[in-house]
Amino acid sequence: MTISFTSKLFGERQKPRRKELHQGQHKNIYEGTCEDSLVLFFKDAVFVKKEVVEINGIGAINQRISETLFTQLSKVGIRNHFIKSLNMREQLVQAAEVIPVSVRVYTEVTGELAQRYNLEKETSLQKPIIEYRTISEQRELLSKDHLDAFDIAEESEIFEIESLARRTTDVLFGFMAAKGLILQACDLQFGRIYTDDPFADPEIILVNELSPRTLHTKEALSENNLSLSEKEDISDIGQIYQLFAERFFLNPMN
Q: Which residues on adjacent β-strands are paired with residue 131?
């Protein structure tokens, strides 16, 4: 299914001209333009009722927002894989060994957390809650012991992941607040960077993307929920992407 979503900011889709390494649901991965690099191509795909739907223009918005947020994180010393944007839909990133787990950080009680523990929605948390999930479609919960026992991550790496996840969430929360948005939760992924020193521990960095697909937000004034995971109407999803584009790229106050 394809839905038209036009924006003067982002233009038409460009076809990648590089060797494809992996085709994903939301991004394709291609050979990089320099050593130890990859190219991410952001697709116009989103899940609606467990169906992949194409909405023209959202790939470019995801890429631009990721570029903006990764750049902000780099400015405060949070290492991530972003190198530069190649065009409106492609990013050059540092190649990393992706740790196969999704890290969700909650700053508020969202729908899923409220349902699981019978809590009131949108209640602020005294401190962020970190959860680990499989990256499979079922997104099953994992404990720290699971990560260690299943050789997903060592104890020292888990400590570093949690430290980076909290710092990243703090920075994103403040940045989104300046855009009139409240960050309720975010889904993060991390990877390992190895050096030539065989005795050195790998460095943990932030990877994947930061976009409306991975950031669960609401509007600060209206408290309108903007989390894609809680939307089933395609027109609602299109409106959320339009709002993000306006807040990030068109609002002269920001």
A: 104
**pTM of the model as a whole:** 0.89
| Mean pLDDT comparison of 14-23, 89-98, 215-224, highest-scoring range | 89-98
How many Cα atoms are found within 13 Å in the side-chain-facing hemisphere of 93?
Answer: 32
Q: How far apart are the first and last CA of the chain?
A: 35
Per residue, what are the HEC states of 105-163? EEEECCHHHHHHHCCCCCCEEEEEEEEEECCCCCCCEECHHHHHHCCCCCHHHHHHHHH
The Cα–Cα gap between 111 and 36 comes to 40
Query: For residue 82, is pLDDT > 50?
Result: yes
Calculate the dihedral angle through the C-alpha atoms of 41, 42, 48, 54, rounding to the nearest 10 degrees. -80
Q: What is the 3-state secondary structure (H, E, C) of 195-237?
A: CCCCCCCCEEEEECCCCCCCEEEEECCCCCECCHHHCCCHHHH
Q: What torsion, rounded to 10 degrees, do the Cα atoms 108, 113, 118, 120 define?
A: 20
Please report, for residues 77, 157, 164, 194, 200, the alpha-carbon distance to residue 206 in angstroms, rounded to integers and kept in the order given. 12, 13, 8, 14, 19
Least confident of 29-43, 114-128, 161-175: 114-128
Residue 55: CB atoms within 10 A of its CB come to 21
β-strand 215-219 against 141-142: which pairing, if any? unpaired
| Cα(235)–Cα(238) distance, integer angstroms | 5
Per the document, the length of the chain is: 254
Whole-number Å distance between alpha carbons of 220 and 108? 13
CA distances in angstroms from 221 to 75, 112, 143, 181, 243, listed in the order given: 28, 23, 36, 8, 14
